Amino acid sequence: MSFKLTLVAGAVMLLTACSNESETTNTQNTPLPSAETAPMEVSQTASEKANQLFDELFEESIARSPQWLTALGRKTDNDKWNDISEQAAKETQELAIAQLAKLKAIDASQLDDQTQTSLMLFKQKLENQIADYKWRLHTYPVNQMYALHAGVPTLLLNQHRIDSEADAQAYIARLNALPAYFAQIIDALKLRAENGVITPKFVFAHVMRTGENIV
Predict the structure, then answer these.
(1) Taking Cα atoms as reference points, which of 147, 145, 172, 142 lies closest to residue 160?
(2) Which of 140, 152, 122 is nearest to 206 (CA)?
(3) Which end of the chain is more exposed for a tag (fewer CB within 10 A), N or C?
(4) So what's the pLDDT on residue 52?
(5) What pLDDT sits at residue 15?
(6) In this predicted structure, what is the pLDDT of residue 145?
(7) Contact in structure between 80 and 156 (CB atoms under 8 Å)
(8) What is the pLDDT of residue 210?
(9) How far, CA to CA in Å, does 146 sit from each of 140, 150, 165?
């Protein structure tokens, strides 16, 4: 090999060695990702947090109504009827007041248009519910248009799904709980009568006819 070729070959080997050494040094000196340098997780937006709260408040509300849960196709508490006592009405009112306070704490200016609308409607619903509480006895639980007792066969026939033995046991439990539920309806009617709120006389015949049809 000529001196010129030998010199070129030596230069190439020297450059390769230097390059490898540089890569090794750079690899050793490059810091590994740490908790401080790793990308931060994207936090929820104000609208996402608000919508999550809406879902939580909705779940709180329907959890108090076994019949509503059944109508939604859920099987939680499908062995129970709604509690329509005065104590339950008071607790529902307290829950509505607490929920409204949570909604009022939201800064609407940070929300997108759709979530702002949802917030406005949700607040309006709760405000109306809270305001209507004082008129809770000015209703007719049994009338010709709808009646609590008439909703019983509708739920049992059309909404209470039986897909398992547990569902059947829950169905039987609901049947066994009907006397207590009807007793609450009677108490609700008596309480309204004591406050001067009585279903108009012409309604009685219609209600009795509906009851006979159910039987």
Answers:
(1) 172
(2) 140
(3) C
(4) 97
(5) 40
(6) 86
(7) no
(8) 84
(9) 9, 7, 32
> What's the pLDDT at 17?
44
Separation CA 55–CA 62 (nearest Å): 11
CA angle, 155 as apex, 161 and 179 as ends, to 5°?
115
DSSP code of residue 55: H
User: Would you say 57 and 95 are in contact if contact means Cβ atoms under 8 Å apart?
Assistant: no
Q: Which residue has the tokens 């936090």?
A: 43
pTM of the model: 0.76
Burial class (CB in 10 A: 0-12, 13-18, 19+), 188: buried
Taking the chain (215 residues) in consecutive chunks of 10 residues, what is each chunk's mean pLDDT? 39 43 46 49 84 98 97 97 97 98 97 98 98 96 88 95 97 97 96 96 91 84
- How far apart CA 213 and CA 80 sit, in angstroms, is 24
CA distance 175 to 162: 14
Query: What sections of the chain are H helices per DSSP?
Result: 3-29, 46-62, 66-71, 86-104, 113-132, 151-158, 165-176, 178-194, 201-214
Tokens representing 163? 């897909």
pLDDT for 42: 54
- How many angstroms separate the CA atoms of 107 and 169, rounded? 47
pLDDT for the residue 9 = 42
Nearest Cα to 163, choosing from 77, 76, 75, 80? 75
